[in-house]
Specification:
3 domains; 433 residues; 29% helix; Rossmann fold; eight-stranded mixed sheet; alpha/beta; Lipocalin; 25% strand; single chain
């Protein structure tokens, strides 16, 4: 599961060449998707400065609407090379001038990245309007409006992404629904709250979404969350079920969205163990023997949960290949770590639910492993998904869908299936929706 991906700074771009006599002009907008384990889209806009020299900017729209100026651009015989602070790109311009096929290089990672020319109608930058809504003192969130008419849908991204990750997917529902997206605090163009863990708890993030709903006057929307966005869905769905028409979890139904003792989670279980230990220490100094016994039993229960999680995690580390030594570990921004520390337990969500799981997850790196290790990792992955799917299935209001060998970004890897499942689910909701 994607928890966090370091943000890209950088980039590049291009120039032209051609097959015969005439050079091709590559000015205009190009767009493509980095084909890594976690696909992410990039937009490049190329133009000429006053001297006729190519200039370009890059927009990592799945993470931020901010423009990064390209640097170190060179073109020779149709070969395009460019670099920036965080990586480099090498590509080949097609003979018809409509594509640049190449590779994005970031550290030791090499990922295919093919660009295509974008028309005004197909541009990823013109499909929405953006506004900023204040949800707390000094905290404003980027809210995307993809348009449409009808009941509201609100899309929430995973950790490390902005709502722009849905720029291509959300508009598919605008013929019948009004689609919105919210970039949570600490990411993209949204404000970063003060570095205090209380500003990034799951319920705090859920309250941000409710504030946007209130400001925009959105009544009983369906919330759609990817990855850790599931915790915001569960926060609202468990505390304020009357305020939403339904919840759709896009590979987002893990421990942070619905806690199951069968799968457990390090962060949540360690928190409970700390509380149990504190209660035990206090009880030891008291005279109530029953409290001491009850506290002791609680401590033992929590220890067993933490131990089981650590044993599973240790086994995964043994199976996974050792990552290359990249020197000093990067210092992660505060928000992602604080959000992980701010996970909360949700156990009862009584609203209509569609929970889609990738099981097992498509993972290109498994191809480099021995068959024995690959089978065990796949088995561990399937066990986690199956346990969470079972937890959701026990909720009377939930429908569970399993997608074999789908990417964590299920709405990208299995777009048509996910779209159909969502349409079918939306059709089951009340007539006014």
């Amino acid at each position: 599961m994607l928890r966090y991906k370091p943000a890209l700074s950088l980039l590049l771009f291009l120039s032209s060449a051609i097959t015969s006599v005439n050079a091709q002009d590559i000015s205009g907008q190009w767009q493509g998707t980095v084909q890594s384990e976690h696909p992410r889209r990039m937009v490049f806009n190329v133009s000429h400065d006053s001297t006729g020299k190519l200039q370009a900017f890059f927009v990592p729209i799945d993470r931020s609407p901010e423009h990064d100026t390209a640097t170190a651009v060179s073109v020779s015989h149709g070969e395009v090379d460019a670099s920036a602070n965080g990586g480099s790109y090498h590509g080949k311009l097609s003979e018809d001038g409509t594509r640049i096929n190449g590779t994005w290089i970031e550290g030791s990672s090499r990922s295919p990245l093919d660009f295509q020319r974008a028309s005004e109608g197909s541009s990823w930058l013109v499909k929405s309007k953006i506004q900023f809504i204040t949800v707390a003192p000094d905290v404003s969130l980027e809210v995307i409006d993809w348009g449409g008419s009808g009941p509201p849908l609100i899309f929430l991204a995973g950790l490390g992404n902005t709502a722009h990750v849905f720029d291509d997917f959300a508009p598919k529902f605008t013929p019948k629904y009004h689609a919105y997206g919210i970039t949570r605090r600490g990411f993209g163009a949204s404000s970063s709250a003060a570095p205090d863990d209380s500003n990034y708890t799951a319920d705090r993030l859920g309250d941000d979404v409710r504030k946007v709903m209130d400001v925009l006057g959105l009544k009983k929307p369906v919330l759609i969350g990817h990855s850790i966005g599931g915790e915001e869905l569960s926060s609202i769905g468990s505390r304020f079920p009357a305020e939403v028409a339904g919840l759709i979890y896009l590979d987002a139904g893990y421990f942070y969205a619905l806690y199951s003792p069968e799968s457990n989670d390090r962060e949540l279980d360690v928190k409970d163990l700390k509380s149990a230990l504190n209660a035990y220490l206090i009880a030891q100094s008291g005279s109530d023997l029953k409290s001491v016994i009850d506290s002791t039993a609680n401590v033992l229960s929590e220890i067993r949960l933490v131990q089981r999680h650590l044993e599973t995690f240790q086994r995964q580390l043994v199976l996974l290949p050792v990552p290359p030594d990249s020197g000093t570990a990067p210092v992660l921004p505060f928000a992602p770590s604080a959000i992980i520390r701010g996970e909360q337990k949700y156990t009862n969500i009584q609203v209509p639910i569609l929970a889609i799981f990738a099981s097992p997850h498509a993972n290109p790196s498994l191809a480099q492993m021995s068959e024995e290790k690959r089978k065990e990792l796949v088995s561990l992955d399937q066990q986690e998904s199956a346990t969470q799917a079972k937890a959701f299935a026990q909720l009377k209001s939930a429908k569970v869908v399993m997608l074999p060998n789908a990417n964590h970004f299920v709405f990208v890897s299995n777009e048509q299936e996910v779209e159909k499942d969502m349409w079918d689910f939306l059709a089951t909701l009340s007539p006014k929706f």
